[in-house]
Amino acid sequence: MCQTLGGQMHKTIAAKRRLLITEFRGFDMTKHLFLTGEKGIGKSTLIKALLKRSPGPFGGFFTVKSAGVLSGQITVHLLRVGMQDSPCADNLLFCCGAQKDQASIAARFNALGCAALTPRPGVRLLVMDEIGPHEEEAVDFRQAVLAALNGPVQILGVLQRAESSFLHQIATHPNVRIVTVTAANRDILASAL
Which stretch is the leader sequence (predicted)? Predict the structure, then answer.
């Protein structure tokens, strides 16, 4: 009985893996791939695992939350990929739960985000982890993202699930492929991508 159940589970996993591989077989790897899904499902973890298997150098950014920069506050920071940055006041985007000054947030995204997306020699992949609705008013940053989508360097990124004309513009760009990460497919995606 246990062998039958185990064998059936193995067949189900193998079938899901074949389906994902078949789905990606037609994917033009010169296009850009953005992951989406529920918060905490493992999108950033998947990107970090893919980067470990891929040849560098990489450019772009990760956004990270920190509890250690401003006393008693959770903050969000934009860290450049490959630069050994740590969360600090210099890369602070905004404080979670605080009244948000959209103009100030836009200015920080414009400064930090554009610097992270500036082309560097030899960069083979740009990481954009993650893009969400806070970037809506950051015109320079938005232009840098759209320029990268039209450029030659492949992008691996994360799009938050939120209502935003900017997120919609990325998701519907002809060079972008969107993949939804779920608890059921995240481990299979790690081997299929």
Answer: none
